[in-house]
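request received
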Amino acid sequence: MEQPEQNVVTQTEPQTELPRAAALQDTRPSDVPDSPGASVFDAKNVSCYYGSFRAVTDVSLTIYQNEITAFIGPSGCGKTTVLRTLNRMNDLIPGAHVEGDVHYRGESLYAKDVSPIAVRRRIGMVFQKPNPFPKSIYDNVAYGPRINGQRNKGELDEIVEKSLRGAALWDEVKDRLKNSGLSLSGGQAQRLCIARTLAVEPDVVLMDEPCSALDPIATGAIEDLMREIKQRYTIVIVTHNMQQATRVSDRTAFYSVLRNEESDTRTGVLVEYGRTQQIFGDPQDTRTQAYVTGRMG
Amino acid sequence: MTATAVSGQAPDLREPKGWRSTKNRIMTVLMVTSFVLVIIPLGFVLFTVIAKGASIISWQFLTGSPIPPNVLPAGIGGMWPAILGTIEITALATVMAVPLGILGAIYLNEYGGKGWLAALIGFMSDVMTGVPSIVMGLFIFSIWVLHFGYSGLAGAFALGCLMLPVVIRSSYEMLRLVPDSLREGAYALGATKARVTVTVVLPAAIGGIVSGSLLAVARAAGETAPLLFTILTVTEANTNVFSGANTSLPSQIFSNASQPYTGAQDRGWGAALTLIVICFVLMIVARFVTARFTRYSR
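response:
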């Protein structure tokens, strides 16, 4: 189930030999094969609760390796909640719990003996608001490798440079690695957070509206970055920006809010999931159609 | 206002006449007045202590020993036993109270959550803040001094008990200010809770924790009441903080200043100035330490 060697492929030598990666190399959204390779996440009838409040009901979807999967939908539809169940970040919220099955590469994520720590080391996350630690740029990126036991200065230097290059930030900060991570601009700080996530060489990168606080130029830089790194990682992104979903994602999941008139409660549901081209070009559900054409939401 | 714009006349951009600017002026005057009122007592205290104490301070006063009997003039002996006692006892109290207080605050904010134990500890710590210092002295007197005798250690217990709730409260407030997004960022990299606390939360809050703790230390260094019952007040230097009666600057200020002899009164002023300077130095150190620890927070 665990194949960490797939994650250490360097940019200079893309491992086209890898059977899973081979079918998916450099695929633009329109080129996504209908029967893709390995599934990374398999969610079956997942419902998420905060206390007794059911935030999301009955979500089932499969997320594939080396693809960018976008979650779109109006506010309060549970996109972020579903994203956070994928690396057990919701465990940190008191009262939050999950029903149903979430499988990650065949293993149940919510099995009793699964450590959320081990899960998060493989499944990294980039947050809506850039959250660099109040440490130097270097220490920000070296944080993950250090908690994994990497103490060797030379190795750390190499990881930091590689990760910052991977996040397209190296040229801007290479002369001031000792400066505070908080001294960076919003877009740089977000790329620093991406570099920090890449430094632990995760299998999957979850992104929760990573560009919502950024200007179009910084957004463009991060989208380029996503297209580049998807050759080595699997990416799931929550976005409010439908253009962004069409620009970067291979598959799109549209969520919506279901109102229960009797009990006056709202809960998120997965309305439609498919290839991005199909969701935006030929939506099967009227709600999806209304949303992607801008008539609702 | 919009009507004028619509009608084609030039908009009136001047400050509207009326209450607002008057209110502004009144509030400014009030604020400056209260600032001055607050500064006056501080200025008087500093001025008086420096005026009366500065001439007493000398190398011999700071390092000489023993503290002479009250009837003798200020030129004889020195305050060294009290300076040494204050440093010993405060340092020991700090070693006991600050780590315990910070650990308590970490428990309250990071681990206790909404549990009953955390609520109880938080409540008890707040109650402890309200215990008068002399009661704390009596408490240590009854549970420790009656069995083991007077010592610097007993004084440190009393001061430590006074510092503990202050350290807990100030550290807790600092930890609460650390945004959850930082914790989440570290968790998302696969850090354990202990590691998140030690490598992200504590460093982010350390500036405030250090300055809060040093404030508590400076406050404890100036306490008299709890020491009266716990260290006695002797005139000889006692380098062993763990046994035997001791003395401290506040105790000496108290015993000397309440005498009719001018020599004793002069010594009291000198001791007061010495204590102020020690606390002042602590404050400056606190500033530097805070600046050093928070250099990445800006």
